Amino acid sequence: MDETHLLSPDSTVADNNKSKKKNKNKKKKITQSRSKAKRYALITFEELPEYMKDNEYILNYYRANWPLKEALFSIVRWHNETLNVWTHLIGFVLFLGLTVANLMHMPQVRDFLSMFIRSFPMTADTNVSHNSKDIFLVSHFYAHLNHLYIHVHTHIHSRIHTHTHVCVDLFQIWGLRKKYITLEGLLQETTKLIDLKQTASPEMEIPSLETAAARWPFYIFLAGSMFCLLSSSICHLFSCHSHYLNLFLVRIDYIGITVMIITSFFPPIYYIFQCNTHWQFIYLTGITIMGTFTIVTMLSPSLSTSKYRPFRVFLFMAMGLFGIVPAIHGLIVNWNEPQQNITLAYESVMALCYMIGTIFYVSRIPERWKPGWFDLAGHSHQIFHVFVIFGALAHYGAALVFLEYGNKVGCGRSI
């Protein structure tokens, strides 16, 4: 007998209802998915809320009133802000890498990190069981080696009088941890350090840590650049969420620009005038006060309206023009300094990049020539972002020269 005939009518009806309910839920999910996709679809310039209408030459691919989650995930979606986000996000990562690289070259940081690996084997052929006694002796005598290092460094420095980079060889002893696994290696490297005093030329000089220039102005500039680039990326990514968040992020974006301008002044002014502390104080205090006033202006709801746009432009121009005064002063003070030409070249490239980027930003070229053609890639704001990064990198190159000059002059204090 066919088993289907044994099923009750109630069982068949229940199965049919379950199947219908399943299909209904499936259709509901599809409808919700389509509704969500339609709701968060990219729109045209005409469909934008008034507060988001900024560049009438970019016609399509806008986001408006998106939830924060959707806005975050749009970082991997093509729209007219995608490259605005990624250009400065890549710039932020680049400057973060430069900051870490410079920190790793500081003896204090390198020695701090080396503490975590000083007792571990660094070569594959190291036999821990055979060398356990040596490892114990190494850890026991490590403090004595540190005192010996300081004593030899001081003694050599008192005997050597011209400049070279022998100090690099001294600092490299802390990078030779793999040879300290055995007591024999420890003694060999200690002997090399002592022999360095005997083989060093009388014309050599070891720059003292006590007379090296302070590095904090250099890192202030790097931090300001990273803040500007990151705040710009965040602004372009999340400004589509709401009117309130849009206004807030735009202010933060302008504050980031202000911070970058302020911190860019610190390396040149500090290192050029580090032996003239009164001028150093006057110039750094002046740009800090101007920048603080600009930031307060940006945070004010009334002063951040379109009515006061000329006033805000004036503040940015005033900060930029302020830099002419210490620049001319620095040229006069260091007229015969060979490194002056190098810094001038870097700073000229920086100024040129910022000027070209600003021209693209203000003129809205090329999208004004072909509206709609550059909606996704190649419009003025993206070009502006690229030139900002190039300008910041040029100033980074100049900052390295200023830091080297500061070490040469030797009026600062290390940190």
From TrEMBL:
Region (Disordered) location? 1-33
Q: What is this protein called?
A: Uncharacterized protein
Compositionally biased tracts (Basic residues): 19-33
Task: Name the principal localization, coarsely classed.
Answer: membrane
Q: Name one GO cellular component term.
A: membrane
Question: Has keyword Membrane?
Answer: yes
Binding of Zn(2+), residues: 236, 381, 385
Q: Report TM segments.
A: 85-105, 218-240, 252-273, 279-299, 311-332, 344-362, 383-403
Tell me the keywords, alphabetical order.
Membrane, Metal-binding, Transmembrane, Transmembrane helix, Zinc
Q: What membrane topology does the annotation report for this chain? A: Multi-pass membrane protein
The entry lists its GO molecular-function terms as: metal ion binding; signaling receptor activity
Q: Which Gene Ontology BP annotations are present?
A: response to hormone; response to sucrose
Q: Where in the cell is it found?
A: Membrane
Pfam families, alphabetized: HlyIII (PF03006)
